[in-house]
Amino acid sequence: MTIAQLEPLPLQHLRRGKVREVYVVDDARLLLVATDRVSAFDVVMMEPIPYKGAVLTQITSWWLRQLEADVRHHMISANVDEIIREVPTLAAHRAALCGRSMLCRRTEVVPIECVVRGYISGSAWKEYSAAGTLAGEPLPPGLQESDRLDPPIFSPATKAAAGHDENISIATMATLVGPSTTMELERLSRHIYERGRDVAAMRGIIIADTKFEFGHDRDGNILLIDEVLTPDSSRFWPADRYRPGRAQPSFDKQPLRDYLDAERRAGRWNGEAPPPTLPAEVVRATSERYLDAFRRITGSALDLSELT
Ligand SMILES: Nc1ncnc2c1ncn2[C@@H]1O[C@H](COP(=O)(O)OP(=O)(O)OP(=O)(O)O)[C@@H](O)[C@H]1O
Ligand SMILES: [Mg+2]
Question: What's the 226 CA to ligand 1 centre distance in angstroms?
Answer without folding.
Answer: 6
